[in-house]
Amino acid sequence: MAAMVPPVKLKWLEHLNSSWITEDSESIATREGVSILYAKLVSNKEVVPLPQQVLCLKGPQLPDFERESLSSDEQDHYLDALLSSQLALAKMVCSDSPFAGALRKRLLVLQRVFYALSNKYHDKGKVKQQQHSPESSSGSTDVHSVSERPRSSTDALIEMGVRTGLSLLFALLRQSWMMPASGPGLSLCNDVIHTAIEVVSSLPPLSLANESKIPPMGLDCLSQVTTFLKGVTIPNSGADTLGRRLASELLLGLAAQRGSLRYLLEWIEMALNASAVVNTMEKTKLLQSPEGMISFDCFMSILMQMRRSLGSSADRSQWREPTRTSDGLCSLYEAALCLFEEVCRMASDYSRTCASPDSIQTGDAPIVSETCEVYVWGSNSSHQLVEGTQEKILQPKLAPSFSDAQTIEAGQYCTFVISTDGSVRACGKGSYGRLGLGDSNNQSTLKKLTFEPHRSIKKVSSSKGSDGHTLAFTTEGEVFSWGDGDYGKLGHGNSSTQKYPKLIQGPLQGKVVVCVSAGYRHSAAVTEDGELYTWGEGDFGRLGHGDSNSRNIPTLVKDISNVGEVSCGSSHTIALSKDGRTVWSFGGGDNGKLGHGDTNRVYKPKVIEALQGMFIRKVCAGSQSSLALTSTGQVYAWGCGACLGCGSSEATALRPKLIEELAATRIVDISIGDSHCLALSHDNEVYAWGNNSMGQCGQGNSTGPITKPKKVSGLDGVSIQQISAGTSHSLAWTALPRDRQVVAWHRPYCVDLEESTFSHLRSFLEHYCDKINSEIPPLPFPSSREHHSFLKLCLKLLSNHLALALAGGVATSILGRQAGPLRNLLFRLMDSSVPDEIQEVVIETLSVGATMLLPPLRERMELLHSLLPQGPDRWESLSKGQRMQLDIILTSLQDHTHVASLLGYSSPSDTTETSSLCISYGSLSDQTYSVQSSHPDTHLAEILMKTLLRNLGFYTDQAFGELEKNSDKFLLGASSSENSQPAHLHELLCSLQKQLLAFCHINSVSENSSSVALLHKHLQLLLPHATDIYSRSATLLKESSWNGSVGEKLRDVIYVSAAGSMLSQIVNSLLLLPVSVARPLLSYLLDLLPPLDRLNRLLPAAALLEDQELQWPLHGGPELIDPAGVSLPQPAQSWVWLVDLERTVALLIGRCLGGMLQGPPVSPEEQDTAYWLKTPLFSDGVEMDIPHLDKCMSSLLEVALSGNEEQKPFDYKLRPEITVYVDLALGCTKEPARSLWISMQDYAVSKDWDTATLTNESLLDTVSRFVLAALLKHTSLLSQACGESRYQPGKALAEVYRCVYKVRSRLLACKNMELIQTRSSSRDRWMLDNQESADVDTQEHSFTRTIDEEAEMEEQAERDREEGHIEQEDEEEEREHEVMTAGTREVARSRDRDRMNTGTGTRLDDQPPQSQQERRISTDLTEGQDVYTAACNSVIHRSALLILGVSPVIEDFQKRREDGQLQQPPSSAPEGIGLMTRSESLTAESRSIHANSNYRLMKSRSESDLSQPESDEEGYSLSGRRNVDLDLASSHRKRGTFYQCSFT
User: Fold this and answer.
1) ∠372-376-378 over CA atoms, to 5°?
2) Most buried among 530, 575, 760, 917, using CB within 10 Å?
3) Residues 1104, 1108, 1114, CA angle at the centre, nearest 5°?
4) What are phi and psi of 955, to 5 degrees?
5) 196-214, pLDDT tens digit by residue?
């Protein structure tokens, strides 16, 4: 479908990715569904139709055949022209058919969906967020704080004294209890504990709550005291009754003062254990006095203190109190239950507040304290801080005037306060009516604004610069504006100043606004449906409308959608998507404040690429900088100045950069003024940085800018919940915000988001759930009702903590080792016959905390695999708990992020499993796989897809069984919902397929990619399954053709099965992938087509569609009606999708067959080496029996170049003959490699060749061995070389030896190149001066001969002998000796001859462009490598390729000649071994192939590649084997040999 008719222009818009991901891409199966999605593409202007090309119907001009006689070539030309014309016409007509129109739309929609998925969920080297769990961050700060002051000897002495004193006290107390009292009322130990109780009671509430301020020694003392007191409370501990009671009271007092839920749960556990022992002793009547009691007054005072400190105002009638005895005591059991109920109620109240902050309206009783503490600091020049003086305030100061504030906005020298009732008050600078009070006067106290009509205001935004204007939106989503009206920034259609709040009409009328932002000279608003409106000054493109024009009414920004938040700066705007995944910026780009990596202006919203892959919670735009807050609590900054927080006020960041100083702190809110920033941490600490000239950073001074975030002083212990930064002043206050969820990890008495809380609750549940079905409840519960009530409270508290952890975005790791046991415990309760009330709470807890309790992705997949039914009847065997667990896991995997992680396309959210999701394949990694450095591990995904497909198959079989059973009935009833397949299974499999196909399409993967392998494995199961479904369907229709209702039911069954819309999506997607991906599936597709065709012939749609397709060119056209939109009458219309599927499968098969006929495309390597691949040497293809050629090459070269001869080069087993060549190349001492090498050396010495006696040239010897091995292999002379005499080898073998030593001579010439170059200029001048006048004597002639000339002369002599001109052998040997001992004076001349390609061994018209190759070698030298070494390495690399990678042609040629397939060569080439007539080609051509060790001649053949020919001769030939015989014969005729050795 490369040629689109009609042509369209594609322009995918990033901001629409989210909406495309949610689209049901399976609906493309039907023409109606694809038309809807295509219409969306067109309406979004992502597909722009281009002008239709004019249909050219004019055929080729033909001659008058009667008058003109044409040659055969001319006839062929005209026939080709006619055929091409007819094919073009047929293609044009077919491209206009209804099916072709629908297919084009399907492919475009799939491309769009795949782009959205890949762009959003597949990592592309994006900036990764660093996950900071609360444990790690708190741990690091604790260590830091502890290490601030080194431990001194005094500390050690004090600690020793305290420890020994405690030990002595404990020993004395135990001894005192064991000894009888010396007198009435005297008890040493009880008096000590009583004193301790009095001390603890006199402390203010929560005095021991801040453990960070308690020295380690103090915490250790508390731990020892607590452990001692716990041991005392048990009745058989040895202490008296009063001692045990006082110990319980002191423990409770300490727990309440420490304020942590953990200590209260420990006390409750202690009380229940003690009560259980007391009950046991009562049954055995071992008690003489009442045990297990506690002072009623002491307990109630602690309980009331807890209620008061949290401001609890619940109905007192609901408070449970323990029963008071006559002597003022109450039982530990009742006190424990009462305390537990109170803790659970507090946690529920707080959880409800966090879950729905907007519910705290005027009429509701506030859960927390009614008073709001507001702290102010910075400039007070215009009374914007409502303080008496106008002096700047250098550190936070409590401002009682703001006490009833809910939300505060700090503007340009002014402040706005929104109260809980929605009213607004203002103070500070009033110029241009910016306060909205009706005048331009400054206001030193807060004064209420009037809104007409009256409205409750939800949020205010006031500009931080220019002349000041303010925006506010109401709880109903209406927008008011007031202040300076220049540039139309108030949005009222003019530029007038507005001194009272005025409702903005126009485009915002009827819209529900959820966010507003006032910039310096422009404004913006975001509506509930994700639209962004901007107005005001348009300079620099800050309005995002594509120009610099100003707007005086709100104008929709058309290029983005799904916006959730906006922030306006001085001359730029930043927008954030609803899902937090996309951040856009536009406007002035000076100083890099747009974050795009440059300083250019941007006139339309542009995605900030550096923030892709993160979840952003908030963005802020300042004067010259911008901020972004991630969901993990990290802050990124870009722009310039101290606001970057990087330690310099002169720094500039063109892209978002993490503020390292805050990396270990979890930030929950940020605010930016004109040039300073505030950040609020999860533990209520405020940080500030930037301009501090007015003390706005709260450091107690106003000196210099603060270049790194610093904690604002004076706010310790204050529970700050919100912050606001103005132009030069700051505010922080304690009211809970309504626009974000605020979750404290620790809340006194009731919330502790840490593992110990979950550990205690798990302990309670495990201990008290054992006898849940027993008639006798476990001790100490007196009845089942109270037992069940306690379990419900445990589950409620667990549910609240899970909900709070989720709301606060706390990492799953907070559960630690408790997640698995808690999950198993809850599902076990689901399967138990527990009371309904408990089961309801269990289900609620599982529903709330499913994502927290689920294991990491890998374990989840294993769990899912074990739960999914493996057989048709296993589904019913699942228990209720297993079904719920399966449902929860399937639901959790619906998230595309998890699917992408599962397939290995993105880093999972739980980073600990990243390493387990990906494995490295080293050098075998797919070259086109650019997203990750290693192949993703798809094993788990493969198992899951197989299991899901099997399960879907069970349901399809079940549905077919019902249809076949009831086909004889006239009316088929509706299938029961119990037998319908779970939607989760279908959706998850579809999601996996979509992500897999998206990755393959976007990344253009090759056929050996692991993703393609996974796709093949999946389709090798799916396609036969679909074939079976269509066969059964055709049989069913044939047998019940009289029953029309069967067809209707059958359509529903097939469409929702794996062979329905799901298969249609896959088959269409395969058209978008390279044909090599689909080709291995050809046999499965061919099996699928006949049953699909039989089924369609039985259905009513096929015949009607065929008529429509044939008639369309005559009766319809694209200018009249959309071809894909033509509908058929029912019931035919409902089966159109199946006919389209058959045609698409047929088209896919045609593409595969066409690709096989055409052959695979030429690879870049083949293009680079096209000249050499035409030579006979390379015509036999690669050695396919050596797996992983690249690894073998790398290993061989590593051994050869490292000099380690004993190291085993390969882990792979090679063929014996290849092993001999490798041994020879590496210089092994094994036979016959050793003999071959010695034979050549002896022959060279006997011939007295110039390099035969060189020593200490190990690299040169290595080259020689490699060249010898390569030549022996490709001349098939190995056996001859092993058998012949070392001093009298055959002519062919002697020629091989000569070639080896010629290479040695050339390499030595390289070594002497520098000497030659230094003397070349003087030598050239001498040669020019003497060229005409001086004759070189005979000795000079003979001396300057080279091995090339000698070889030429020997060749000539051979021809002369054949013609009868035989010379004397002794003269020839003398001349040979004379030539071979020539020195290096001719090196420069010979190199010049090489460059000019004047060698006689290769025809001039066949020469490759060698100058470019020589330049490449000269420029490819690595640093510190000389020409000689580089040349040696180059020859070794190429020889290794010939040894391991290239099959010998001579061997194959000789076999064919023996079989009679070739004519016998003339006798002029005896034995067929006159193989290398011109050794000049050996090195001249050696410059033509890259010296890369990983150089690959051809891709490996896939085992399942059905398009490859069966014959190796056909399949692996790198050049056309059809011409090899002709080439060889021609070569023999011209040169008297079989072929020319084009070495390397």
Assistant:
1) 170
2) 575
3) 150
4) -70, -40
5) 888 888 888 888 887 767 8
